[in-house]
Design a protein that fits this description.
- The protein has 13 helices and twelve strands.
- By secondary structure, the chain is an alpha/beta fold.
- The chain has a domain of about 130 residues: Aspartate Aminotransferase, domain 1 (Alpha-Beta Complex), CATH 3.90.1150.10.
- The strands form three sheets. Strands 2-8-7-6-5-3-4 form a seven-stranded mixed sheet, sandwiched between helices.
- Helix 5 runs parallel beside helix 6 and helix 8 packs across helix 12.
- It binds pyridoxal-5'-phosphate.
- The site of pyridoxal-5'-phosphate has 14 residues, from helix 3.
- Pyridoxal-5'-phosphate (PLP) binds next to helix 3.
Length: about 400
């Protein structure tokens, strides 16, 4: 089996599994309890916070544990919006290809009276910092731009955007769920106020993540109850999950450079191989791109059929589109970079792992070629394209 859907979730590392088991087994006290078993759990929690903060250049008390990336995105945006509302600033700038955890939260705020500007991400899938600056108004309370896109892998100029936001005194949130553990991040140098991350995207467990919130920035609670997490996120902490997240992140940070180099080489070989398929195109900038992300459109086919046939060949991939969630709309990310509906439907995302072998790379290229040819052989759209009734776009 070839697992090529690491942008959706990753396999837990062995070290993270071991941490999770041993903490769950031996460190089961409630971290808010005063006796020693509770205090051991508290120490595990604070040690994890320190490790995680260290990896992204934060202070431990700037890290808030959450149930994952979605919760962290929600809390960051709703916190900034609450501050904005209080100051009569109800305008938010974001981008058209954010994750739904961001976009749906912004839609909710829009219904509550906020004005949302969604920036163009252009053909290469990158936000232009000068357009961020141009979009900022006197009543802007937040800019939210993701660190790296989950479908097409493009890395955004976060440091430039951070500097612009700081200059204008506007809060800046970045959804860094695809970036943390994969590319180097320094929240101080990047001048971000909020950053969201999720353990299961860097070989940690599912259902746990964190929000970086810069010291002094106001947070609103999504969950009311006990005084956990400085009173900003109630509920007994997921100690085994948090400890495993710290183990996974420490491991990922230690191996980041070598793994990224290996991944880039494998990624580029896959891209070169898939580019040989006629009427295909890489989605997103080739250079400013996550080390393990490959995303293509193939004209004249349906991404969903492609995935099912690849699954038959033992390759687990994604279309990167909302088709998988039951909707037939093409991916909002591919539409945002200007792909027309027909083309956007024929998409394939491979998010690979460093262990992928040369044989597996060649097998993957061969399999995609075969399946695309097969699907085109009975595709009515392909027939129209080939007969010249419709012009080829790719
Ligand atoms: C996976 C993902 C999320 C959601 O994270 P969860 O931990 O699954 O809630 C948010 N943003 C991006 C960019 C993601 O890839």
């Amino acid at each position: 089996m070839i697992y090529a859907d690491n942008a959706a979730t990753t396999k837990m590392s062995e070290a993270a599994v071991q941490t999770m088991i041993s903490v769950a087994r031996d460190c089961y006290g409630n971290p808010s309890s005063l006796y020693s078993l509770g205090q051991r759990a508290r120490e595990t929690l604070e040690e994890s916070r320190k490790i995680i903060a260290g990896v992204i250049g934060a202070e431990p008390n700037e890290i808030l544990f959450t149930s994952g990336g979605s919760e962290a995105d929600n809390q960051a945006i709703l916190s900034a919006a609450a501050t904005g509302r209080k100051n009569g600033k109800m305008h938010i700038v974001s981008s058209a290809f954010e994750h739904h955890a961001v976009l749906h939260t912004l839609e909710k705020l829009k219904k509550e009276g906020f004005t949302i500007t969604l920036l163009d991400v252009h053909e290469n899938g990158i936000v232009h910092p000068d357009e961020v600056e141009a979009a900022i108004r006197d009543d802007t309370c937040l800019v939210s731009v993701m660190y790296a896109n989950n479908e097409i892998g493009t890395i955004q100029p976060i440091r430039e955007i951070g500097a612009i936001c700081r200059k204008h005194g506007v809060l800046f949130h970045t959804d860094a769920v695809q970036a943390v553990g994969h590319i180097p991040i320094d929240v101080k140098a990047d001048q971000v106020d909020f950053l969201a991350a999720s353990a299961h995207k860097f070989h940690g467990p599912k259902g746990v993540g964190f929000l970086y919130a810069r010291k002094g920035v106001r947070l609103t609670n999504l969950i009311e109850g006990g005084a956990q997490e400085n009173g900003k996120r109630a509920g007994t902490e997921n100690v085994p999950g948090i400890a495993a997240m710290a183990t996974a992140l420490k491991e990922a940070a230690g191996q980041m450079e070598q793994r990224a180099a290996v991944l880039r080489d494998k990624r580029d070989r896959l891209i070169q191989g898939l580019e040989q398929i006629p009427h295909s195109a890489l989605n997103g900038d080739a250079a400013n791109r996550l080390p393990g992300n490959i995303n293509f459109c193939f004209e004249g086919i349906e991404g969903e059929s492609l995935l099912l046939l690849l699954d038959d060949k033992g390759i687990q991939a994604s279309s990167g589109s909302a088709c998988t969630s039951g909707s037939l709309d093409p991916s909002h990310v591919l539409l945002a970079i200007g792909r027309v509906h027909d083309v956007a439907h024929g998409s394939l995302r491979l998010s690979i792992e460093a262990e992928l072998t040369d044989d597996e790379i060649n097998y993957t290229i061969r399999s995609v070629k075969e399946v695309v040819e097969y699907l085109r052989s009975f595709s009515p759209i392909w027939r129209e394209l080939e007969s010249g009734k419709k012009p080829h776009i790719l």
